[in-house]
Structures are given as structure tokens and as C-alpha cells.
Write a structure and sequence with these properties.
By secondary structure, the chain is mainly α. It is built from ten helices and no strands. It is rod-shaped, with a radius of gyration of 38 Å. The protein starts with a helix and ends with a helix.
Length: 254
């Protein structure tokens, strides 16, 4: 009878100890869900050091995602490898992700820190500033300059519409690269590309102001010349040719 009671007590004790890691893991998961990352890191680390594969997997992911501080690929690999060795499928998938990240390191760096918007400002949307003379005195030149300005304006409007449609630029990140990014990297890429978009927009607006200012200088000078020329013609005495033409119209002959 004593042996039976001792066995039952031993079984109850083992069950209680087995339940502890599950309860601790649930606490760690709850802290992680609340984004209480320091608390989750502490709890996962304790369980991971005790050999819990699920905690090792989560700990590796925290290091990979930068939720344990700075992104640490070495520590992430270390913990994920331990979890994968115990048959953790999620850890194995994360290790495969890490290998793919190494293969696409240049692309990841491009989208997170080096992207320059060159795929947005293509030749179709380059609008060279038209040249304006100081003043135009003949109708042919006035029409030519006005046409150049109109064509530039149309090009600029197309580019402005294109910039709006391209926003946010982060949607240009290829899906196969985006799935390799950590949350921190994706946020970094989005912030960087937002800044690039703002710079492209600012550059376009500055260029538009400069072109418009040059055009206004030409237009004001040309309009002033035309007004002065018209005043001269209006106030000058008629030429002999004009007088002769007027006599003929009136039937006066010479």
C-alpha cells in the first residue's frame, strides 16, 4: 500500500513539474503578445536555457526581428539551430529564411538603405527646362517659346501624377525580397523610401519654380516690349505710304 501511494505521489510530482514549462511558456507568449519584449526575452531565455525547443525558436525569432535589441543574426541562428535539432519545424523554416537572406544580402541592403528612386524618375518623366531668350520681338519666336513652355508643363504634370501614383514607394519592393525582411528592416525600408519620395517631390517642385520664374521674366519683358512698340506705332505720325493708302480709300487720288 505504501509503495502504491509513493508511486502515485511521484507521478503527481512529475506532472506538476511538466506543467511548469507550459505555464511559463504561456506567460512568455503573453508578454510577447503585449509587446513587452524585455519581459518576454527574459522568460524565453530562461526556458530556452532549460532546453525548451519552442522557447528556443521564439528567442531566435526575437533576435532575428530585432525585438531583443539590435538584430543579431548569429544569436538567432544559434537558438534556431538548437530548436530545429529537436524537430521544431518553425525553427527549420526560419533557418531556411536566414540562408535565403544571406543569398539576397545585396538586395536587402538596396531596399533598406540604398534605394534612390531611379526606377521612378525614368526617361519618360525627365522634363528638361526650356531655354528662354531675354525678350522676344517677333511673333514666330513668341509662339515658339510659348509652345516649349506648354510642352514642359504637360511633361511636369505627368511626372507629378506619376509621383502620386507611385506612393508609397515601398510597394515597389519585390514580394520575394519583402518576405525575407525582418520587421525592423521593413520599417527601415519604408522610412527610407518615404524620404526618397519626399526628396523627389521637393526636387520637382523646386525645378518647377525655377522654370516658371524664368518664363515669367521672359513673358514680362516681351509684354513690355510689345506694349512699348504699340505705343510708338500709335503715337507716331503716319508715313507718306500710309497717307497715300488713306487717300485711295477715300477716292481722293493724289
Amino acid at each position: 500500500m505504501k509503495i502504491a501511494l509513493f508511486s502515485a505521489a511521484l507521478l503527481l510530482s512529475c506532472a506538476a513539474h511538466a506543467a511548469l514549462p507550459a505555464a511559463d511558456l504561456a506567460d512568455a507568449d503573453a508578454a510577447y503578445a503585449k509587446k513587452a519584449y524585455p519581459e518576454a526575452l527574459q522568460k524565453y531565455t530562461k526556458l530556452a536555457n532549460a532546453g525548451n525547443a519552442t522557447a528556443q525558436q521564439h528567442l531566435g525569432e526575437m533576435y532575428l526581428n530585432g525585438e531583443a535589441g539590435a538584430v543579431d543574426a548569429d544569436k538567432a541562428t544559434q537558438w534556431l539551430t538548437k530548436a530545429a535539432a529537436k524537430g521544431n519545424a518553425a525553427a527549420s523554416a526560419q533557418l531556411d529564411l536566414l540562408r535565403q537572406r544571406q543569398q539576397h544580402a545585396k538586395e536587402l541592403a538596396w531596399w533598406t538603405t540604398q534605394y534612390d528612386g531611379s526606377d521612378v524618375r525614368t526617361d519618360d518623366y525627365r522634363c528638361p527646362a526650356p531655354r528662354f531668350p531675354a525678350v522676344s520681338k517677333i511673333n514666330e519666336e513668341i509662339d515658339s517659346v510659348s509652345a516649349r513652355m506648354k510642352n514642359w508643363q504637360l511633361c511636369f504634370n505627368r511626372y507629378a501624377d506619376h509621383l502620386k501614383e507611385a506612393s508609397p514607394l515601398s510597394k515597389r519592393i519585390p514580394d520575394d525580397i519583402k518576405k525575407l525582411m525582418t520587421k525592423a528592416e521593413l520599417e527601415q525600408a519604408e522610412a527610407h523610401m518615404k524620404q526618397v519620395h519626399q526628396q523627389l517631390t521637393e526636387d520637382a517642385n523646386i525645378n518647377a519654380k525655377l522654370v516658371t520664374a524664368d518664363y515669367n521674366v521672359w513673358r514680362n519683358a516681351t509684354e513690355a516690349y510689345i506694349a512699348e512698340h504699340n505705343d510708338i506705332l500709335k503715337n507716331s505720325p503716319p508715313s507718306e505710304e500710309d497717307l497715300q493708302s488713306l487717300r485711295e480709300k477715300r477716292g481722293g487720288g493724289k
